């Protein structure tokens, strides 16, 4: 199902909604279309371009800053679904410093891993293995929640997400 990025009146990304909801917001006058998706929705009496990005006409106060809670889906999105030890397709997550040895469940200590690498490392410290990380894990940017919710980020969304500190790869 197609989705649309919702921007606040200040162009800050605040939500991702189904395309149908985006059309309703535009038709009701509560939002304006910023980018079209190229698709069209038809009814008996008219047709409308389906938005890819919409901007709310009135500023909506977001009661709290969005936190990037650590989730399996978020780790896979951050690491592009690739094992951080061998670059194979990741199937699980691994704690670099094992929890059984006092490691925390944090963005800086969790990486995506394939089963063979995860099994080979077991509950050992990374320095006690011959394995090396491809890149140091870090907390995702402020808008990483968008990528975690949609997978690949559509090209029209990039300018609104990059501006807020998130380096997101475009859809291919």
Tell me the distance between the termini. Answer: 17 Å
Secondary structure: helix percent: 10-25%
Order of helices and strands: EEHEEHEEHHH
Q: Indicate the radius of gyration in whole angstroms.
A: 20 Å
Largest sheet: 4 strands, mixed
Number of helices: 5
Strand order of the largest sheet: 2-1-4-3
Number of strands: 6
The backbone outline, from C-alpha atoms, is elongated
> Proportion of β residues?
15-25%
Word description of this protein:
The chain has 172 residues and is α+β, with helices and mostly antiparallel strands. The protein folds into 2 domains: 3-65 and 143-162, no CATH class; 72-128, Orthogonal Bundle (DNA Binding (I), subunit A), CATH 1.10.30. The chain has helices at 19-27, 72-78, 115-121, 144-150, 158-162; strands at residues 3-7, 13-18, 31-42, 47-56, 92-95, 110-113. The strands form 2 sheets. It has a 4-stranded mixed beta sheet with strand order 2-1-4-3, sandwiched between helices. The protein has a two-stranded antiparallel ribbon with strand order 5-6. Strand 3 (31-42) and strand 4 (47-56) form a beta hairpin. It is elongated, with a radius of gyration of 20 Å. The model is unreliable at 163-172 (pLDDT under 50).
